[in-house]
Fold this protein.
Amino acid sequence: MRKLFGSRFKKILKKDGRTFLLAFDHGVEHGPHKYEGIDLNPQRIVDIAAHAADAVILHVGAMKRLEKIPKRLGLVIKVTARTNLAPNMIQEIVTSVEEAVSYGADAISATVYVGNEYEYKMLRNLAEIKRECLKYDLPLLGFMYPRVKGKPKNDVIAVRYAARLGSELGLDLIKTYYTGSKQSFSKVVRDAFAPVVAAGGMKTGSIDTFFKEVKDVIASGAAGLAIGRNVWMRKNAIEVAKRVRQLVHGKD
Ligand code: FBP
């Protein structure tokens, strides 16, 4: 039987079964205009991650520009994309796993919008990406994001279903929306037999609200969080990232 987790995966999912990922694909997902006044230099994000995160999630172009990458930091390269300018909610394959490997990827990530009209295409893409990951023995992180007409993105039933789908399809790690309470998210975690991480979401007004959410995610049994805006949009990003690390791993 294929060994599930190679040493590269250990850089991402730690011995305690937890992980803190710093997400930085927003220049693609939302566009730089949404982050006016925020320094979107990839090196700044990696420097923040170096202090506290287990891994960063980047597109390959950002990866190529980095000058310093700490050895211990895991690199998750995202291979699907769409812009916010496009009318259709579909992410296409934009980077080959081979290219990601050539830039030192420890894991691959891809988005599936579960429940929308293009779901079947994204699932087909996922199958292709899985095949490539298998070839290079790389773990696959799936952004299993519901997009169901008439329902919010974090609808509990849809999130549970999306996370379960990712588990059934053999993803090594699942990232999905936080459903807003530890009770509801614990159902997501319970139904998904692969480890689940919650996305951080929009920057909250109060930092305490955000830290409470991190605590609740961990209390729900999740493996951790993949956070972007709530860390790198803040002036004291390194400090915030260090606190998240403590909350996720229970130590500095
Ligand atoms: P955040 O912590 O900033 O929410 O980042 C997590 C993330 O999944 C990013 O990787 C991605 O760019 C973004 O959220 C997508 O958010 P949405 O689907 O709401 O546009």
